[in-house]
Amino acid sequence: MATDFQQEIKTLRATMDSVREVTDLDALQAQIKDLEAKSGAPDLWDDPDAAQQVTSALSRANAEYERVTGMDARIDDLEVLVEMGTEDGGDAATMAEAEAELASLKKAVAELEVRTLLSGEYDEREAVVTIRAGAGGVDAADFAEMLMRMYLRWAEQ
After folding, report:
1. Which of the residues 60, 88, 123, 138 could staple to 118 if both were Cys, CB 3.0 to 4.6 A apart?
2. SS (H, E, C) the chain
3. Contact by Cβ (8 Å): 118, 102
4. Over the stretch 2-16, which tens digit does the pLDDT of each residue have?
5. Rg of the chain on CA atoms, in Å
6. pLDDT on residue 1
7. Which of 8, 103, 33, 28 is nearest to 68 (CA)?
8. d(Cα 20, Cα 73) in Å, to the nearest integer?
9. Of 27, 6, 118, 115, nearest to 71 (Cα)?
């Protein structure tokens, strides 16, 4: 079955639009400029703890900006690759490469979307999950054990 690249690219772009909306690239760029100004101050390393916080925040902000803009560039590159593969009757090797890149890109965009959705105030902290069988006897205990096993396997991934 042939892949509908136009629809897949459209879906990827829609997902990236929502990621960009949540990320607010303009505010992120302003934050990067502010942090760069602070990191360029001559007295920055007079307080090593504050300097560490500034450089760490700058590094995180740059990485986040690059992650989003890099994904946009990969989508653009995929679109060009598909155009090259469909020109003059099509090139099977180029289309196979486009298929592989599409699969890789879909996975990367999905991971970025989850990462973006989990970027709230408390999302970097660990969570504690407790599963209790409660009333219900052996069936409830068995179900609680299955549920615990399912969550453990998911967390290991």
Report:
1. 123
2. CCCCHHHHHHHHHHHHHHHHHHHCHHHHHHHHHHHHHHHCCCCHHHCHHHHHHHHHHHHHHHHHHHHHHHHHHHHHHHHHHHHHHHHHHCCHHHHHHHHHHHHHHHHHHHHHHHHHHCCCCCCCCCCCCCCCCCCCHHHHHHHHHHHHHHHHHHHHC
3. no
4. 678 889 999 999 999
5. 23
6. 43
7. 28
8. 13
9. 115
